[in-house]
């Protein structure tokens, strides 16, 4: 777990409940399907799958799913583009009705609903694309336009590549959902074998014939394909909740007001008309037709259908099912979201994948799972019959099926919302004395209420409209086990009940409309809240820390720290980012644990005392005010959550809160919300809230770091005055030297987990104990020279130190501040000759810049009158001298003179880019806090004087031009640091370590096994990791340092930052079934023209020589029908066996034993291909890494490869 979970309660309980719930509802039922299918053996499986009828049904399911996914991508993108980029009347209504296919049950939607329902899956396409489009900075498009790109090029080369992850995710989710669709199809398909019988209908047919093996085998094929595509989707994630779309009218007006982002009127109007036609014809018209058909026989027939006893029974059962399923999944969703969002732990990604799994499972398969467990031939079926317990074909099975289908909805709404909100508010509540339960109910739940309401709305709509799963387990007992969707099906199939079916359908249609109304209301309330957020007793304690040590992985944050904090004083912990000051403050508060050492509060060991019991007040850098509470309620919170025995009455609370608000001069804002306050006002309220609980010590973490310079200066004076009134023992963290010198009674200067100096502001400034303190506090001139018996030789100049100065002979570094030096126009003793460069006049002060004969810059502070009197000229020869000889500060050169920049900052820059500018993910990957990451970035930008990141508010969107230039340097520096460690490892443990190889499936399956076997025999202690990916992904893995060696045919030789050597040459082979017409020909008779007569199955673009195949057909001017492309040869051969086409694969990918049903035909028509071995330039491998390359390619020149990987220059 990361440090942020230190004080938050409930990790073990929430994780345990989440795992148990998922196991019972998802994993165990799914395993029943796979176990049952394996019971017939491989031969039995093959016999079932080779049935022409089953193959036809699977083909039809995959085809319709593909069509649905393509419609989702094309029209979903069009609608999202119009909603974000354009303003038009009725935009909010259109935005709401886009989700109609989701809200409308499939039993009502019919075939059109089958094609369009995936479009409305809330976490799929539209909600992913709209935020991405909203976040696209106009500068990207303007930059492309300035470089000469036209509008079409901007869309295809800038916008679409950025949107690609969302497009891919939408396609995967839509396909997985479409493969298993059943409810809408059953009404219009007719279940005609070989024509309209899709796979879910085939499963139903097999179940009716008690052919469980056949049903489960079909289910497994559907699951595997759906899982493969669903789990392979792009990991696009947002930091905010996926469900709440922002109103983009302001963005649309901005985009259409700029030349670079404004489309011509005819383009805009055409897109809007196409979108409107699709919207009305495919979304609105089906709903209207339902009502037209319902009232065709007159109003009396309509109402008679609604009050029919069977209808009322179906309504009752539907409501009962939703009333049980929804609360269960709400409890699960909140618990799972708390576990996933608030804690980091191994297997977290796997857990979120399991939560999403029901999205990719056909409802019919969900019902089948329950049949396999609770049916008469199921796991516990005989036991249930023996004890007369009825689950299947009764209400319990209907509820269980509905619970499975609706498992993800609440959790997937809350997880991104909770992740975006972080943990500071919960930590603040606990510091103020709230228990875990109070924190959850008073802070967490109010903060997530809109996301929770939204999740409940979606979960309830799906629960009441579920058809496929319920149809399998209900038994269709009229008046007993028919929900509304099932009752509609029965009425639809009866000769004279069509009008009644449509009448009952209107009930579910009304449910869909109510769902959309509630959805729009929730979004409106969230938008309103977001809009508002944009507008707008003396107690002493002695504190000791003894021998404190703290590590975060390999990072040593604190090194044997011992300190006494004087009672009643204001102490500053000062140092650069990463020095350990915030970690020490959090340890004192109890928000962070120690690895060793003690925290002593008022003579009592508080090391293991909970933060709630330490009586400390903590002010967070970003305030951590409870956004849903007024200023008054924020300050009163800590008092109201006290145990009853010590809780003041409301009168006393009001008196104390009013006094504190008057103290911080903000009593007039008591009824305002945090979003309506300025940054300075929020910080004062945070301080008042911390003081309300009468803490014995006040701790402040960078209290002014998030404010602008002017407000910071005002609040520094105010804090000093406030402390003088209260005299409460206070410790504050800062990296601002001026802030510490101005405010603190005592300063503790820290560096790299150690204490450099403790003293008053004057002591640390005027008598710095170490070179670091001198260099860190204020400006300093630095002179390097050789000391011999008190005389320092600096180039050609000499400085004699006073006899009282004790400095060892040898190389030294001397320091002098600008105000301690003076300019002379004639040489004297103890002067340094220099060239006058220029004067800088800043706010009434003058700074002269000189350059000595070694090229070193010297800064000297001048009196304005002195500058006017002498009027020094550029390039004039002058001499610098100390105003008082003893004000030089010499140190042995063995002392380290630290700069603010450090490797931790560089790692943070790199990791932030790798995590797609998500600071939460970057901090988790580096085992540090999000605020620490933000401070590191800000410190580095301040030090360099440039902005490294493009920002939108507090969010990072990308790198600026200086940031891009810096990143390449950072990568090289960190590689060099890693190489130093690798060289040491080679000397210490030559034959131990890890080697990561990234390659394609074909290489891993058919080429590398004998090489890996030889390598493991030679290096048994080396842990070998074999990762399979596409060639483009392999290149990226090498460049990011996620792999040591890459092996692939394409992409590796085109990347400038990779070095490569050839592995082996190979050709493509043609693969066909044994009785295919091509097998009758002589291989030399097979030409491109002959091959183009047949459907082709081959590698996906960018895999295993696909570019050579495409070029061969293109050069021959042939149109080839590539019916399917896949990522690996085994998949290609599987579909060749099914007779879908002729395969083209790497010639090594034919296994005579496994592929005996296939025929390999050697051919030269595609030319020769080369597989390459690549390493990242600048990345030095361990010795055994080069041995692996030698085993792959004995002729490879390892010295040359090392030269490529790490050139001398």
Automatic annotation (TrEMBL):
Keywords (A to Z) from UniProt: ATP-binding, DNA-binding, Membrane, Nucleotide-binding, Sulfate transport, Transcription, Transcription regulation, Translocase, Transmembrane, Transmembrane helix, Transport
InterPro entries the record matches: AAA+_ATPase, ABC_transporter-like_ATP-bd, ABC_transporter-like_CS, CysA_C, CysB_PBP2, CysT_permease, CysW_permease, LysR_HTH_N
Domain ABC transporter, first and last residues per copy: 543-777
Mode of membrane association: Multi-pass membrane protein
GO molecular function, one term: DNA-binding transcription factor activity
GO cellular component: ATP-binding cassette (ABC) transporter complex
Transcription in keyword set: yes
This protein's name: Sulfate/thiosulfate import ATP-binding protein CysA
Organism, as annotated: Oppiella nova
């Amino acid at each position: 777990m990361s440090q942020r979970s230190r004080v938050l309660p409930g990790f073990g309980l929430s994780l345990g409940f989440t795992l148990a719930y998922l196991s019972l509802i998802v994993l165990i039922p799914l395993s029943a399907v796979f176990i049952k299918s394996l019971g017939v053996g491989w031969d039995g499986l093959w016999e079932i799958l080779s049935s022409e009828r089953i193959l036809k049904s699977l083909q039809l399911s995959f085809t319709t799913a593909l069509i649905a996914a393509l419609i989702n991508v094309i029209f979903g993108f069009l609608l999202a583009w119009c909603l974000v980029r354009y303003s038009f009347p009725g935009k909010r209504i259109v935005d709401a009705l886009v989700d109609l296919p989701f809200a409308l049950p499939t039993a009502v939607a019919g075939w059109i609903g089958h094609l369009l329902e995936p479009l409305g899956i809330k976490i799929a396409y539209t909600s992913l694309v709209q935020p991405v489009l909203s976040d696209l900075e106009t500068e990207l498009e303007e930059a492309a336009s300035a470089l000469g790109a036209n509008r079409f090029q901007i869309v295809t080369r800038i916008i679409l590549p950025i949107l690609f992850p969302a497009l891919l995710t939408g396609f995967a989710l839509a396909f997985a959902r479409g493969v298993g669709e059943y409810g809408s199809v059953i009404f219009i398909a007719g279940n005609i074998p070989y024509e309209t019988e899709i796979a879910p209908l085939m499963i139903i047919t097999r179940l009716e014939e008690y052919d469980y093996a056949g049903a489960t085998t079909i289910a497994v094929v559907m699951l595997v394909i759906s899982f493969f595509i669903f789990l392979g989707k792009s990991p696009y994630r947002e930091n905010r909740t996926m469900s709440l779309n922002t109103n983009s009218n302001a963005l649309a007006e901005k985009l259409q007001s700029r030349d670079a982002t404004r489309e011509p009127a005819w383009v805009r109007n055409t897109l809007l008309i196409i979108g409107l036609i699709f919207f009305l014809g495919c979304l609105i018209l089906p709903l209207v037709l339902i009502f037209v058909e319902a009232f065709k026989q007159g109003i009396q027939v309509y109402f008679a259908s609604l009050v029919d006893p069977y209808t009322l029974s179906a309504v009752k059962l539907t409501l009962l099912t939703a009333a049980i399923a929804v609360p269960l999944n709400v409890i699960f969703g909140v618990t799972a979201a708390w576990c996933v969002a608030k804690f980091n732990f191994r297997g977290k990604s796997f857990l979120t994948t399991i939560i999403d799994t029901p999205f990719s499972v056909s409802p019919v398969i969900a019902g089948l799972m329950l049949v396999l467990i609770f049916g008469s031939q199921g796991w516990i079926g005989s036991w249930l019959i023996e004890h007369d317990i009825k689950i299947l074909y009764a209400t319990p099975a209907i509820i269980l099926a509905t619970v499975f289908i609706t498992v993800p909805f609440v959790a997937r709404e809350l997880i991104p919302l909770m992740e975006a909100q972080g943990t500071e508010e919960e930590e603040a509540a606990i510091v103020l004395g709230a228990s875990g339960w109070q924190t959850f109910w008073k802070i967490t739940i109010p903060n997530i209420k809109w996301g929770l309401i939204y999740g409940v709305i979606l979960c309830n709509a799906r629960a009441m409209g579920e058809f496929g799963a319920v149809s399998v387990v209900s038994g269709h007992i009229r008046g007993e086990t028919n929900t509304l969707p099932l009752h509609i099906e029965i009425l639809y199939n009866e000769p004279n009940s069509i009008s009644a079916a449509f009448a009952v359908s209107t009930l579910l249609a009304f449910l869909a409309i109510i769902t959309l109304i509630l959805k729009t209301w929730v979004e409106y309330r969230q938008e309103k809240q977001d809009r508002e957020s944009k507008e707008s007793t003396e107690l002493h304690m002695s504190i000791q820390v003894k021998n404190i040590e703290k590590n975060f992985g390999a990072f040593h944050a604190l090194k044997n720290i011992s300190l006494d904090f004087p009672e009643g004083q204001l102490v500053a912990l000062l140092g650069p980012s990463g020095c350990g000051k915030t970690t020490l403050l959090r340890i004192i508060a109890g928000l962070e644990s120690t690895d060793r050492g003690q925290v002593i509060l008022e003579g009592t060991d508080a090391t293991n005392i909970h933060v709630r019991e330490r009586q400390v007040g903590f002010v967070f850098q970003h305030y951590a005010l409870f956004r849903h509470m007024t200023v008054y309620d924020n300050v009163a919170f800590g008092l109201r959550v006290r145990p009853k025995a010590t809780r003041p009455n409301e009168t006393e609370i009001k008196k104390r809160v009013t006094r504190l608000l008057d103290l911080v001069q903000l009593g007039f804002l008591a009824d305002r919300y945090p979003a309506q306050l300025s940054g300075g006002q929020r910080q004062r309220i945070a301080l008042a809230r911390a003081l309300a609980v009468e803490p014995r010590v006040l701790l402040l973490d960078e209290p002014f770091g998030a404010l602008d310079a002017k407000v910071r200066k005002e609040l520094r004076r105010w804090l000093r005055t406030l402390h003088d009134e209260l005299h409460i023992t206070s410790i504050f963290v800062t990296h601002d030297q001026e802030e510490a010198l101005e405010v603190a009674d005592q300063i503790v200067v820290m560096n790299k987990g150690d204490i450099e100096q403790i003293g008053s502001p004057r002591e640390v400034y005027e008598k710095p104990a170490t070179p670091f303190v001198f260099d860190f506090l204020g400006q300093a001139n630095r002179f390097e020279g050789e000391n011999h018996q008190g005389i320092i030789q600096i180039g050609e100049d000499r400085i004699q130190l006073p006899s009282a100065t004790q400095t060892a002979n040898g190389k030294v570094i001397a320091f002098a501040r600008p105000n301690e030096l003076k300019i002379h126009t004639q040489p004297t003793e103890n002067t340094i000759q220099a060239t006058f460069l220029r004067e800088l006049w800043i706010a009434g002060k003058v700074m002269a810049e000189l350059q000595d004969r070694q090229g070193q810059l010297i800064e000297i502070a001048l009196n304005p009158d002195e500058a006017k009197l002498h009027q020094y000229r550029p390039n004039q020869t002058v001499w610098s001298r100390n105003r008082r000889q003893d004000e030089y500060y010499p140190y042995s050169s063995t002392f380290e003179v630290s700069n603010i920049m450090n490797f931790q900052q560089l790692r943070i820059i790199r990791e932030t880019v790798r995590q797609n500018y998500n600071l939460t993910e970057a901090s988790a990957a580096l085992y540090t806090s999000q605020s620490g990451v933000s401070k590191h970035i800000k410190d580095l930008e301040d030090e360099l004087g440039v902005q490294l990141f493009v920002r939108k508010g507090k969010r990072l969107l990308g790198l600026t031009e200086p940031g891009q230039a810096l990143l390449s340097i950072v990568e090289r520096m960190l590689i060099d640091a890693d190489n130093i460690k690798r060289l040491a490892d080679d000397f210490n443990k030559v034959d131990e370590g890890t080697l990561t190889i990234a390659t394609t499936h074909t290489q891993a399956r058919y080429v590398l096994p004998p090489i890996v076997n030889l390598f493991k025999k030679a290096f048994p202690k080396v842990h070998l990791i074999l990762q399979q990916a596409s060639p483009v992904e392999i290149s990226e893995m090498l460049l990011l340092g996620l792999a040591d060696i890459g092996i692939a045919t394409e992409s590796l030789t085109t990347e400038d930052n990779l070095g490569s050597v050839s592995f082996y040459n190979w050709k493509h082979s043609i693969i066909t079934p044994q009785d295919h017409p091509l097998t009758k020909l002589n291989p030399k008779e097979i030409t491109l023209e002959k091959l183009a007569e047949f459907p082709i199955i081959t590698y996906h673009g960018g895999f295993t020589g696909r570019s050579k195949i495409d070029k061969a057909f293109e050069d021959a001017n042939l149109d080839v029908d590539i019916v399917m492309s896949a990522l690996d040869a085994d998949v290609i051969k599987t579909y060749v066996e099914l007779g879908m086409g002729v395969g083209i694969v790497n010639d090594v990918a034919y296994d005579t034993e496994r592929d005996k049903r296939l025929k390999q035909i050697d051919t030269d028509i595609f030319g020769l291909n080369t597989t390459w071995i690549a390493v990242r330039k600048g990345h030095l491998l361990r010795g055994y890494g080069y041995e692996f390359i030698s085993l792959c390619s004995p002729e490879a020149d390892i010295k040359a490869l090392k030269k490529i990987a790490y050139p001398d220059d």
